User: Fold this.
Amino acid sequence: MSIETLFLDLDGTLYPHENGMWDLIAKKMEIYMHQELGIPEKDVPSMRFNFFTKYGTTLRGLLANYTFDPEEYLTFVHDVPVTDFIEPDDELRQMLINLPQPKWILTNSDKHHAKRVLSALGVDDLFENVLGVSDLNFRNKPDLYVYEQALITAGNPPPKNCLFVDDLPKNLVPAWEMGFVTVLVGQNEKNHAADFHIREIKELPVVFTTME
Assistant:
């Protein structure tokens, strides 16, 4: 099997969620929901959870139910001190360098946040570009549209020659159904839509060894 193109998720994939940054971003989502959209504070946590479960992101759920500027929302929630949580990762950098395929970030976050994270990790020069939620008409994984647009942006490589890595099993499903080689990263149990399961992104070369 020849893998020509890599699509990698960002948050929870290139760095672990446990570093605390995503907790701060989630808190800022709740602040925005209460202060800017007028949602009662007591209802915010459950609503955010329900939106994430149903729509894939809190943003998508809010857009389906409220009128507001999504770019303003994204700027607010991602305004966090990234370098307080993330530092250069030389091991990650060398692993990515050793994989010769063109690499794309496919994230439900916005491009500005993604680029800040990649810069903090010291790997921003190793990716072709970032496909963020703003680039995808505010549609997000696991919406099939996202994967179709990712392929178009990358020059229409055959899905069977593409590898997609994510930390959420539900985000792997459309890619797997399209024929991507899928990799689940993190502590989640192996899912039917995951061709491979690794505990951390630095184990990705093992996937390629297994396919040989």
